[in-house]
Write a structure and sequence with these properties.
Blueprint: E1 4-15, E2 18-29, E3 33-37, H1 44-51, E4 59-64, E5 67-68, E6 77-80, H2 92-101, H3 107-119, H4 133-146, E7 151-155, H5 163-179, E8 183-188, H6 191-197, E9 200-205, E10 208-214, H7 215-219, E11 222-227, E12 241-245, E13 248-254, H8 258-266, H9 276-285
Parallel strand pairs: 3-8, 3-9, 6-7, 7-8
Antiparallel strand pairs: 1-2, 1-4, 4-5, 9-10, 11-13, 12-13
Helix pairs in contact: 2-3, 3-4, 4-5
Protein name: ABC transporter ATP-binding protein
GO molecular function: ATP binding; ATP hydrolysis activity
Pfam family, one: ABC_tran
Amino acid sequence: MSEPAIQVQHLSLSFGKKQVLNDVSFSVNAGSFAVLAGPNGAGKTTLLRCLMGFYRPAQGTIELLGRPRKCLPGREVAFGAEACDFPSDWSLRQLARFRSLVGEVSPEAEKEFERLLEQVKLSPSLKVSQLSRGQRSLAQLAWVLASRPTLLLLDEPTLGLDVVARDLALDLLLGFLAEQPATVLLATQDLDLAERLADTVILLHQGRCHWTGTLEAIKTRYQVVTVPRGFAPPEHEAPLVRRDVLEGEQWVVPVTTDHWKRWLEDRGISGRTPTLGEVAFALWHEPKEDTCAS
């Protein structure tokens, strides 16, 4: 097994009296594509900013690429924020040239930025003020990738993009990963996108970690079954989620214990593997104790 590229242990952070992160622990192996998923307010952006050193946690430790965060050279880790902070009166070429001159990026990264802009059909001569929101997001992603980092931390890179721009962004990201091995931690609310890209999943809800592990492992812990309306579950048990459907009721049930397995088998009820969205909804619908595992 590869060494962790990200190792977070017992991370907690509060803003005033509001606890935003509560004893969060997880690891991401080098070379993984990990998705940090959660609804609005779950703590995704705050967690990424802690990893970047923008916030100082009240407790806990962070190691990136095998070293404490403060000991890591800046160019090995790149952060793509949801909001683009480029100066509005500069062209994209001017922006790249300035950051190269001040040593923030290498001259090679400046050239790579222009190459990546061409891939997403953006001219380097465009001023930031001329870009739509979607185009700014594409330029931001191209900028993050241009330095060819070892570790990518991305905050909602496809949020608000139309279908065409989203496909351009994903092609850009996946093309980069095909050329250069890297570890990705991508924060998103889009669980369909997460299921498409991720091999590792971290589920956050209300600042707590509900799951960390492989995508396959979390999906095999549950089954989606359809039963007649009014069907009684096992004694002292309840489905995580019950929904009305045309055929009756649809339940999401845990199958990690023999109790549920036997109950389903005895009644001849077969289920299917849930989507990541169905699992996440079940865990977030009625938050229970943490199920973080690795």
